[in-house]
Each structure stands twice: as C-alpha cells, then as structure tokens.
Amino acid sequence: MKRKPAVATFAVTAALALGLSACGGTSTDSPKESAGAGGGSAAPAQAEFNAAMSKVFNPSTKKGGTLKFVNSGDWDSLDPADTYYGYSWNFMRLYGRALTVFKAAPGAEGATVAPDLAKDLGKPSADFKTWTYTLREGLKYEDGTPITSKDVAYAVARAFDKETFPNGPTYLNEMLNWPKDYKGVYKSKDVDFSSAIETPDDSTIVFHLKQAYSGFDYITQMSPTMPVPKAKDTGAKYREHVISSGPYMFEKNEIGKGFALVRNPNWDAATDPNRPALPDRIEVQTNVNADDLDNRLLSGDIHVDVAGTGVQPAAMSKILPDPALKARADNPTLQRLWYTSVSPTVKPLDNIDCRKAVQYAADKTGYQAAYGGEFSGGAIATSLMPPSVPGAAKIDLYPSGADGKGDVAKAKEHLAACGQPNGFETNIAYRAERPKEKATAEALQESLARVGIKLTLKPYPQADYFSLYAGKPPFVVENKLGLAVNGWGSDYPDGYGFLQQMVDSRVIRETGGSSNVSVRIPDVDKMLDESLLEADAKKREPMWAAIDKRVMEEAVILPGVWAKSLLVRGKGVTNVFISDGQQMYDYVAMGVE
Amino acid sequence: MTAPLDVPGSATEADPEAVLAGADRKAIQGRSLGQIAWMRLKRDKIALAGAGVIVFLVLVALFAPLIVKFLGHPPLEFHREKIDQSTLTPTGAFGGMSWDYLFGVEPLWGRDIFSRIVYGARISLLIAFLATLLSVVIGTVLGVVAGYFGGWVDTVISRAMDVFLAFPLLVFAIALAGVVPDQAFGMSGDTLRVSLLVFIIGFFSWPYIGRIVRGQTLSLREREFIDAARSLGARGPYIIFRELLPNLIAPILIYATLVIPTNILFEAALSFLGVGVRPPTPTWGGMLAEAARFYTVPHFAIFPGLAIFVTVLAFNLFGDGLRDALDPRGR
C-alpha cells in the first residue's frame, strides 16, 4: 500500500492532532503541590470540580494494581514514528523514552521540558543550528540490549519515511539538514545522513538544523526520537510489537480490540526520574462505543478515557447538573483557538476600520455557544494565545461590552469611519462537514446583521478547505470570502509553535494549502525570526505576546474561543493531574488505589 | 371501462318504477372519463383525506409569511433567552413548547421550530413539484417518441433509460451538488440551489415515467383507433397529440403523484447530507441533520420528521386513490 507523504498536509494534520489531544489548565497561580509525579505527602483527596487542574488529585506512591484505559476509537499507530495524536504521545511514554520529556507535574510546570534518555537538555551551538544531547548510562531495551545514540539516530531516520509511516509528525523532516533526495532508512539504505544527525560515540547525538530554532527541546520530546533497535525493526509491522524502552512492555496486542502492558524488567528507575511507574499492569480496550465508555467511566468500571478529548454530549448533560458527578470532572482550557480570519484582500475589509467594526459587532457569547457552550466549547478569546501557552498575556483591544454580546455603538462608529455607515455585504466560508463551524457562521451572520454587515454563508468541503477554497488567496479574492471560520492548535506548548503557522505571512501560498489566510504583516514575520534567535526562554515569552498584540491591532483575526474539554477522573485512580504539556491527564504519573 | 358505476340510493331501489326512470335518465346523460374517475375518487375517503392534507400543505407553503407573522417568529431569528446556556438545550418542558412557540425552539439558537417547518414546506414542495414536472416532461416526450416510432429510435432511448436507471443517483447528486460553485448559470444563492436540485432530481428520474409511457404507447399504437386514424391519412404528430396523449394522461397523472413523495424524500436526504439548499434557509432534511447532534432533545427531530412523514404519506395515499379511480383494473 502506497500513500502520499504527509508532508504537504503538515499544517492540517498538526491542527487535527491537537484537536484530539487535550488541555492545559488555567493555572495562573503557581501550583503548591508540584511534588512531581511521586509526591505523596499531600492531604487526602477532596473531590471537587477542577480538582486536578493545578495540583495533584489523590496523590500516592503506592505501587501495584491494574490501570484500565479505554479508547472509543483506535490508535493511528503504536509505532513512535507513525502517530500524531496528543493522547498517543502522552500514553507512549509508558513504553518509550524520547530524548526529552514533559515534566510529570500539574499545570504550567508540566509544560516544561526535562531530559529523559538524555542526561541534560540539548546544548545548542551559538547560532542555534546544532544541538547536542548526551545519553544517560545504563539504558536498556526490554530484552536487555543497551540503548545507544545510534538507535535514536536510526529511529529519527526511519521516521523520515512518510510513505511507510504516513501519520507521524514531520518537524524533524523539515528542520534537519537531510541529504538531498533522502528517503529514510528503508529506501535510502546505506545512505550517510550525517549532515542531519551525527553519533560520534554511543552516548552522543548531534542534530544539524537548516534554520536556527531555539525551542528544539520541544521537538526532541516528540515520539520519533524514541529509540528503535535496528535488528528488531520490521518496518510498517513494527507497530504490532514495539520494543519497549520505558517502564512497561507489551504483553499481548490484539489489534482492533486492545492490548496489555506489563512491567519491563530491564527498565531501571535509577535512570528515569520522570516516571513513578505505579501500576503493575496496564490494560487497554479499543473501539468501544463512546457513550458506553462514558457510562463505564462514571460507574467506575474503567479508569481513563484515553483519547482525552472529553465526554460526549449525553454524559455532559448528566454530569453538569449533578454536583456529585461534577466534582469528579475537570474542565481544562486547551492550547487551541477557534477563530475567524478577516481577510484584508477583500473589499471593503481592506480598510482597517471595517475590520474593527467586525471585531466590535461580533457576539462572542454566540461564538461560544456555537462550539458547545462554556464547558465543552471553550472560554471566550480576546486574542490569539490561550492562557496556558507560556508567555500569553491578557490582550483585549476590542472589548465586547458588559454582556459580552458585542459593542454595537463602537462597531457603528468604525463603520462610519470606514465609509460604510450602513454596513456592507461579504461572505463567510466554513467547513460544510463541521456543524460547529456552521453554527459559528450563523451566529456571526446574526450578530453582524445588527450593524448592517450582511453575511452570506458559503460552506466548502473540509478536505479541500485550505488547498482549494478558503486557504487559496486568489479564490478568496474572487469569491469575496471576507470571513473564513478557522481553527488552530499547536503540537507543543510553545509560543512559536502556536503562532507561527497562524500568523507568518510566508506560509501563505498563492497555490493554496495554508491555514493562515489573512495575516500579512511584515512586522510580525520579523518578530517571529527574532524570537528564534533568543536563547533565554523567559525573554522569548514577551516576544510572543507582542506578536499576538500586533496581529490583533490589525484586526485580521477575530478570536472566538479557546477550546475546552470536560474530562472525568476515574474512580480509585491516584496521582491524577492535568499538565499544560499534555493538555489532558498525565498518563505516566497515574496509579490505582 | 366496464364496471357499473351507479350506486342508486336505497329509496329509489324500493320503487322499481323510479329505478327504471332513473336508469333512463342516466342513459341519456352519459359521462366522460374524468367524471367517472371523480365519482370513484369521491367514494375513496382515504384518498380524499390525502388530498385534503396536500391542499393544506400547499396553502401553508404559499402563505408561509402570513402564517408565521401570526403564529410564530421569523424563521432566522435567534431567541437565545429560551436556551439554557450551559447545556445549550431549550429551557422549559417539551423543548420550550408554548403558545408562543407552538413546536418549541431549536437547541443552540432558540429559533422557532414551527416557523422553520412552515418555511421548510416551501422548499420541499417547490423542489418536489418542479422536479416531478421536469421528469414528466422529459419522460413523456422520450417515452412517446420511443414507443411510437420504434426501431432504432426506441433502441437508443431505451438503452439511455437503462443507463440512467443504473446510475448511482444519490452519489452523483452529492458530487454534483458539491462541486457547483456559488454562482453559476447566472444564478446565485437559494435560486441556484433550488434550480440545481430540481435539475438533479428531475433529470435523473425521468426514465421511470419514460418506461411507463413507452409501454403504454406500444400497446396503444396497435389499437384499432390508431389504425383508423392512420387509414384516414393522419400523420405522426396528429396521432401523438390527438390520439395517444389523451389516452396517456391517466398513467402519467398517476405516476406523477407517486413520484412527488419520492422526490420529497430525495430532497430531504440531500439536505440531510448537507448538499441541499444552503443554511440558514430552513429545510426539513437540514433540520433533521441538526437534530441528530442534539439527540437529547428529541422534539427537535420529531417535528421535521413528522412533516416529511405526513407529506409523503398524504401524496402516497392520494396517488393510490387516484390510480384506483382512473384505472380500476389495477386494483
């Protein structure tokens, strides 16, 4: 079976992956109980709504027991080279170790990167184009063979092959300086790829980047750097039995039904400060009806809904009115923004005052309702960056009025300034298959009509939404798509990762395919480049807030909501918390009573 | 037409003289085919009920703005105060049903379901009638031509019918409705969507009528009155229009009445799949599709479902009655 490489659809897949991942709390206050995963000295668990958001719920160090996960669908793949779901990256850390890893800690601390296979975080060269990692000593696979830097290099090179592994992320494919026409370890068999990755000895690995990138540790945290032993690699079939480098290994794998993990005797806790590895056994069931799954989770029959995207509407209407059930739920804000592009290439939106009129006239409460309301829809967004992305600042340039339903008077003022006092007509594009986007378009149609801006709804098929329609600049102009319903989430909690695809004008292609359809601000491009060369994370963060503000000043993006999900803690589960890194419960830390 | 049609009242039956007199009078009157059919139809209470519902629905569609003015709210107007903002479902029992909102309100925006059903009737009936008209015109013309001329003309048209019948209509309709741009053929918006649906549904359902018309024409062609007309020197067009068509009206009428409900269902299916008339214009199928998202609020699905059900049933009952009336042998 031959598939197209996933490289071209990178932005779209990235967005998709995050939609399926979940979370990041509104953890503005620093967590008192950041006892790492194993910290068990806290007060007894007090079940309440959002109890696992910024601190550890029911902390424990007790080992043993069976932790039961259930998935309403199935993994895209269990192979570290071939998976792009947030929950999969979260779960995979139980049987695989990458060079770096998100700290197992609640809230903001969980979005910081810690060394995993590596002794320390990556050491960049002065120009941020060369990154060096040194491996810990005593690392072993489940069969007892030692893990070397060559295994990591091999794993990255094999993940390059997007025909064999169509699902996985492509960051390293694009960032590293691969030899010309390199096709991965299977098709370019003995091709020397030292221009991209070098392994001078068994414990050192060096990455060579094409462009400077100061946040490279976020990239090595992803699953493609989990080592794969060349001798045991079976290509596309490796997903059926992945060789473990983490605390658990596969006992059996019945594809389509589920699998079980047991302790890996060759994993040494001394080499791994990040994983408490509490349960003795982990059982996973796949392809379970989603509503059935929710019921079993509520009754205590299972522990975790592994997909981490939140409960179904039926369960939600059961949980929200019932205080006892609601006390078992968490409602994190995800690193995902649902927004509407306001295209300055379409008249009269080329005039900034007309764009500002749209910002003021929009009813954000309607936008929120369109996505499912306060709990499953999201928090009303006033700028681009969700609060859990490091560096996010509160930016509200176009206040929506006291009731949040828009400021009609201000909108009319700006319409007058724009020379269209009676409003104007334009179109709004959305993905036909997405009822929430249709509802958004209806909500905007209704609220903008209050100031005379008349919108016509234009549904387009989701598969070609960016490649042929709303993401293709000439089509946008020709069909007067003044507004386009859109959404974006990042793969990792980093300002650059979140903003770049959304606001960098250089990702816009005349031939289509970009999810950025409206932001063309030279200042912003420059600011993005500058942030790449800043070594200090603390100094980078305000740079991203500045970019956010600059985009909002131009009013080319109408922020809608920062997505949220409603998660339920299983009965009898210990060490439960949501980290900003995983945006759902951290699966590595969990144990059972 | 062989069946005795008169059912004299019991009072006359009691008096043989009167029966005789009555029989005499009837013999003088004579009845046209239409009158005979109308008499039979009048006796079929179920068909009349169907017809009553159809008339009612047509009136509702025609006077939609007036009805909504007095009994509802504009179909696109939001009433978010009627919605519980945490669950997004209507507040109040039975989906917010009240004298103010006869069928309750839609989840999410609180639009008046009654008004949307009433306006939805316009789209459904308009598309179903026009599409049926289109298929009847194409089907009749091609059916008569094929049946009357026979030979290679018949072969070509019959094969074309087979091709059309074998066509995966639904799949094709979805594809076509999906690729047609927002502005085409000098039309845009709802006008374009309605015309497009009429074209798709009508153009691909003509062979059903075409086959029946062709079959009837084949048998009529060999009848004595056609031979008589021919021997008197009548030519093709005269025979088709003056001799064949009047005799084909009954089957065409029957079939058209039975095709309308199929077309209503087809339009609803396309709207349900999101390739029908564009939102926010209300359609029954579109409402059903939205209701599927809110299955915790069953009333939202019940009303559009009921509307489709009642309409289709009414047309089917009336169509059956009409067939019995026009062609009692088919009973």
Automatic annotation (TrEMBL), chain A:
PROSITE patterns: PROKAR_LIPOPROTEIN
Gene3D superfamilies found in the cross-reference section: Dipeptide-binding Protein, Domain 3 (3.10.105.10), Periplasmic binding protein-like II (3.40.190.10)
Secretion signal span: 1-24
Keywords: Signal
Domain Solute-binding protein family stretches: 113-505
GO biological process entries: peptide transport
GO molecular function: peptide transmembrane transporter activity
Organism domain of life: Bacteria
Protein name: ABC transporter substrate-binding protein
InterPro entries in the record: Peptide/Ni-bd, SBP_5, SBP_5_dom
GO cellular component: a single term: ATP-binding cassette (ABC) transporter complex
UniProtKB/TrEMBL annotation, chain B:
Gene3D superfamilies in the cross-refs: MetI-like (1.10.3720.10)
SUPFAM superfamilies: MetI-like
Keyword Cell membrane: yes
GO BP annotations, alphabetical order: transmembrane transport
One Gene Ontology cellular component annotation held by this UniProt entry: plasma membrane
Record PANTHER family: D,D-DIPEPTIDE TRANSPORT SYSTEM PERMEASE PROTEIN DDPC-RELATED, OLIGOPEPTIDE TRANSPORT SYSTEM PERMEASE PROTEIN APPC
Alphabetically ordered keywords of this record: Cell membrane, Membrane, Transmembrane, Transmembrane helix, Transport
Topology term for the membrane: Multi-pass membrane protein
Transmembrane annotation, as ranges: 46-68, 123-149, 161-180, 192-213, 252-277, 297-319
Residues covered by the ABC transmembrane type-1 domain: 121-319
Keyword DNA damage applies: no
Protein name: Peptide ABC transporter permease
Classification via InterPro entries: BP-dependent_transpt_permease, MetI-like, MetI-like_sf, OppC_N
Family listed: Belongs to the binding-protein-dependent transport system permease family.
Predominant place of localization: membrane
Superkingdom, taxonomy of origin: Bacteria
Compartments it resides in: Cell membrane
